[in-house]
Design a protein that fits this description.
Chain lengths: ~450, ~400
């Protein structure tokens, strides 16, 4: 214990002996650590889990409802399409074979209540299980019911933000709003909800700064002819009509389910295969049964949600870090070797190699710590710069203190290891020659 | 000057010299690749669109597809928009250059061809597209008014399209070396579409492969789903008519949602935003890298000068001039940096090969290597200058002092 504090004391003296070089080392390390931390923070933010706690049991469902591949089709993708059609969706939904299941698609709505109105609000046409499955919380009221869906009831869930605009934030459950010109009853007010990335409908957008503001039962919306937005793919020559897509031949909806155990996943997959076989027997599906269940993370991975540029940025930052470390190590080695005579004396007076090594390692570690601490304002600056950039994910760039701490420890360790090389050279100095030269 | 003594002296500070050389090597590799990335990104963001961007405005309203009188409404909208002061022409289409969402189709050059030859994007010209966009016809002619048909009539099979205008890139891809006019292409069925005109260039709304960015076809089709309007404005800037155009569309149909208007300058900026952000980021990294490397060289060189004061003094006492001392340190730096650059060039190609595998990058052109080398030599010499000049001021009398 005493020896450790003595080593640290000597290290501090060593740093103060040559403040210019020490300053350079700290500055270099701060730059490297700062750049790496900024890039890594952004990378981790972008690859973060949009549904913490439950992402492992929520699955995207893919079934293959495409027309038979033409004999000439040059690339038959083995992957079933991401989206499904209304008929298939409603059939799976009504079977209720998963713990929870929801069908969903984005749409733009114009909403009015008395004098207040909002145009072009992004919303979801969905089914009721979406709320508990995706962790949407409610300020007032709650989701609509399955009975509402069956009855094609005109019920709606609006966001707290929209409730603020339309009803000044009061409990508006039971009141009516006009949605695309039709009268709806408010069933619930949802708390702020904006999973990032927007994993369940990546074709609509990937990083949004607002999230959905209104939710309408998809059956009701379908009956009223509300048009979806996003991607649509159709079999055969049916026109790509986003207004009223063909429920049998077009695909534009996402289907997600919640399955609690591996056994449930297996039996659900079996159910999907049986369903596809049945549809094939009925002549509706033209391809061999091809189904897929992906967890949220598998889904994000498969869709390359983290932009390539961010990945590249992490590599660039790490190579900058490597340059900074090489630089710091070069400076450290010069600094240590300059004190060869001092080492010689300490060794001649009986200091072991180990204690000399520990002392210099402590000095390197201390410089690493100083560098990392000085990196903090640089990280803040880097993230601020990213927030100013007009890219979709920019607003997410914030400092996470735990991440910073982890990176700080990492930086100190790496610097100490890098400092180990000059420290090792320093402790090998032969005592006699150095003493003689005095 | 003889480099032998320099090498000998360097052997005494192997670690530091090697570390600096390693740093230079890394810096060289990164600078070559990063500069290449910056240049490619900036070049990409300058991609030709073929349209008169500075005079165009795109405005989108909620779709009219449910409307019984869709075609009449679109005609009304176009007439209304054309009446706005400053607007010289208006076209309706379902997609615009750099507008992200696009309609694409496989194209064949003979009816019995099994596979599509190329995939091209389809622009639906709801009237006067060529003149509104400012496209340049290099062969053939524009559509005549009687050639236009309604989208719904094609969908129902009442009309069979028979003429198209294509870009020169697409023409060259389909019939290399042949005149494209009057050639036939086939899409879904066996009905030929005759090329009646060729435009110099036009870009796709969304580009996934830069080499096919200008493969476009134009059909004389009115009233496609997702119809939007493009306004050509002269005499004032396009953003000056955003408000009046929005108000006009609202006035024509009070209940509809106007989804917003963008100038084509904005569309381009948005489309290439990511590329520009990346270029700026890379420039920052290069700057940081140069600063760090320079600081390292300055620090280490000052250090060596300090350490070798006695040695310098002896040389001065033995008759070395200040110039000799200066050149000694300059040459020493040059040797270390050159070693680093040599290793760095191999590393640069290694990194480039890796990037090519993972990020769809092309091969690093060889001329980036001398650029990287030159900048680092320059950096090295500039950084060593100050410490080396300090070395020249060491008096010969230092030789007589101990330490």
């Amino acid at each position: 214990m005493i020896r450790m504090s003595y080593s640290l004391q000597l290290a501090w003296l060593g740093i103060r002996r040559n403040p210019a070089i020490a300053g350079l080392i700290v500055l270099t390390l701060a730059l490297g650590v700062g750049a790496t931390m900024t890039a890594l923070a952004l990378f981790l933010l972008l690859s973060s889990d949009p549904l913490p706690d439950r992402s492992g049991q929520v699955y995207a469902v893919q079934i293959d409802s495409r027309e038979a591949p033409a004999p000439t089709e040059d690339s038959t993708s083995p992957e079933p399409p991401d989206l499904i059609g209304m008929s298939d969706g409603l059939r799976l939904l009504d079977a209720r074979r998963a713990q929870r299941q929801a069908l969903m698609v984005n749409a733009l709505f114009s909403i009015r209540s008395g004098q207040a109105s909002k145009d072009g609000e992004i919303g979801l046409m969905a089914t009721a299980d979406l709320f508990p499955m995706f962790g949407v919380r409610f300020l007032y009221g709650g989701p609509w019911t399955a009975a509402d869906e069956q009855a094609r009831a005109r019920v709606v869930v609006i966001s707290a933000e929209l409730n603020q605009t339309l009803f000044d934030g009061r409990n508006s459950v039971g009141e009516t709003v006009e949605v695309n010109g039709e009268t709806f009853r408010v069933a619930g007010i949802s708390a702020r909800w904006n999973p990032r990335p927007h994993f369940f409908l990546l074709s609509s957008f990937v990083y949004g700064d607002e999230g959905e503001q209104i939710f309408v039962p998809v059956q009701t919306a379908n009956e009223l002819g509300f048009s979806p937005v996003g991607q649509i793919n159709c079999n055969g020559r049916s026109a790509l009509n986003m207004q009223s897509p063909d429920p049998d031949r077009c695909r534009w909806l996402a289907y997600w389910v919640e399955l609690e155990s591996a056994a449930a996943v297996q039996s659900y997959r079996d159910y999907l295969l049986a369903d596809s076989r049945e549809q094939q027997a009925l002549g509706r599906f033209e391809r061999a049964p091809n189904v897929k269940l992906s967890t949220v993370n598998e889904w994000l991975e498969a869709h390359k949600v983290v932009p390539d540029d961010v990945r590249l940025g992490v590599w660039i930052a790490f190579s900058l870090f490597a340059v900074c470390l090489a630089n710091a190590a070069g400076l450290l080695s010069a600094k240590f070797l300059r004190r060869s005579s001092e080492i010689g004396i300490r060794r001649a007076l009986g200091a072991t190699r180990r204690s000399v090594f520990v002392q210099y390692l402590a000095e390197a570690g201390l410089l690493g710590l100083l560098g990392s601490v000085c990196a903090l304002p640089l990280v803040a600056l880097g993230l601020w710069v990213i927030r100013q950039q007009p890219v979709a994910y920019a607003f997410m760039a914030e400092i996470d203190p735990w991440l910073f701490l982890e990176l700080l420890v990492l930086a100190v360790l790496v610097t100490a290891v890098v400092g180990g090389l000059p420290a090792w050279r320093a402790c090998r100095v032969a005592p006699a020659i150095q003493v003689k030269s005095l | 000057m003889d480099i032998q003594p320099i090498l000998k002296a360097l052997r005494h500070q192997k670690t530091a010299a090697l570390l600096i050389a390693f740093e230079i090597a890394l810096a060289c590799a990164i600078i070559c690749n990063a500069t290449f990335l910056i240049v490619s990104r900036l070049e990409r963001s300058q991609m030709l669109s073929g349209v008169a961007e500075s005079e165009l405005l795109r405005i989108r309203a909620a779709s009219l597809d449910d409307d019984e009188d869709k075609m009449a409404r679109i005609r009304e909208d176009i007439a209304g928009l054309r009446g706005i002061p400053g607007v010289v022409s208006v076209t309706a289409t379902q997609q615009v250059p750099f507008g992200q969402s696009s309609w694409n189709s496989g194209v064949r050059t003979s009816p019995d061809q099994q596979n599509s030859v190329v995939n091209a994007t389809t622009y639906y010209d709801g009237g006067e597209m060529v003149s509104t966009f400012g496209l340049k016809l290099v062969a053939g002619r524009d559509f005549s008014p009687d050639e236009y048909y309604d989208f719904d009539d094609v969908a129902s099979g009442a009309v069979t399209p028979s003429s198209i205008i294509i870009t020169r890139t697409l023409a060259n891809r389909l019939w290399p070396g042949e005149p494209p006019l009057n050639q036939a292409i086939y899409m879904g069925g066996s009905d030929p579409l005759r090329v009646i005109g060729v435009v110099e260039t036009l870009v796709r709304p969304s580009i996934w492969d830069d080499s096919t960015a200008h493969d476009c076809m134009i059909f004389p089709t009115r009233g496609a789903p997702g119809t939007q309007y493009v306004l050509r404005v002269q005499g004032i800037t396009p953003d000056a008519v955003i408000e009046s155009a929005t108000a006009k569309l609202k006035a024509l149909q009070p209940n509809r949602i106007v989804r917003g208007a963008e100038t084509f300058t904005q569309l381009r900026e948005e489309y290439f935003r990511q590329d520009r952000v990346m270029a700026v980021l890379l420039m920052t990294v290069i700057a940081a890298l140069l600063v760090v490397t320079a600081l390292g060289i300055v620090g280490l060189a000052s250090f060596w000068v300090q350490r070798r004061q006695r040695h310098i003094g002896i040389r001065r006492a033995l008759g070395a001039t200040r110039g000799n001392i200066l050149r000694y340190f300059q040459l020493e730096n040059f040797l270390i940096v050159s070693a680093g650059i040599l290793a760095g060039m191999f590393a640069a190609y290694g990194i480039n090969a890796w990037l090519m595998q993972h990020y769809e990058l092309s091969r690093l052109p060889a001329y980036y290597l001398p650029i990287g080398a030159l900048s680092l030599w320059l950096l090295g010499q500039l950084s060593v200058l100050h410490p080396a000049l300090r070395a020249t001021r060491v008096p010969p009398a230092m030789a007589t002092r101990g330490g």
